[in-house]
User: What shape does this take?
Amino acid sequence: MEFVLPPLPYSSNALEPYIDTLTMEIHHQRHHGTYLANLKAALEKYPDWASKSFEFILANIQQLPEDIRTAVRNNGGGHWNHSFFWPLLTPKSSQKPIGKLAEAIDKTFGSFESFQEQFTQAALGRFGSGWAWLVWREGQLVIGSTPNQDNPLMDISEFKGKPVLGLDVWEHAYYLKYQNRRADYIKAWWNVVNWEQAEANFLAAQGA
Ligand code: MN
Assistant: This one.
């Protein structure tokens, strides 16, 4: 994941009717694009930091020079989170987990339905802007959430782990179509989850 805006791996209207075309265009080009531009502007001041890997930077937010620390936290998180999010969406969803992740979800949460319920509650329960996550941590799948653009890879995050699945619950992700109805957006999102990508993330998180 370099400091470039990754193209969407599908057309901007591909997720209709669950996620509308205009939301996808604005979200990808303007919101994500702005996070990326702001991140690059902050890192430009410190070439030594700019040359580090992105994940190293996120894991060392507290070591960053103070004048760019908040900008990198917010915009670096924004760039990483959205780059992680786009491939986790697909118009050709299997509708439920596959492979090793499917087995681990059943083992950890009892059933996919029980997992869906708990993940949905995490996404609904995040007050204001933020993300819901499924992470791999110390040999276990764990559900949680973060505020703003914090993510589980950050040293300063209140919720840590290796991300397997992430859901953007900022209003910019759903307001045009769903207005204040975050629950409807989450319900629709389950229809476009890319479980093959989630399985790949899960295997990568385990170092497989
Ligand atoms: Mn977003």
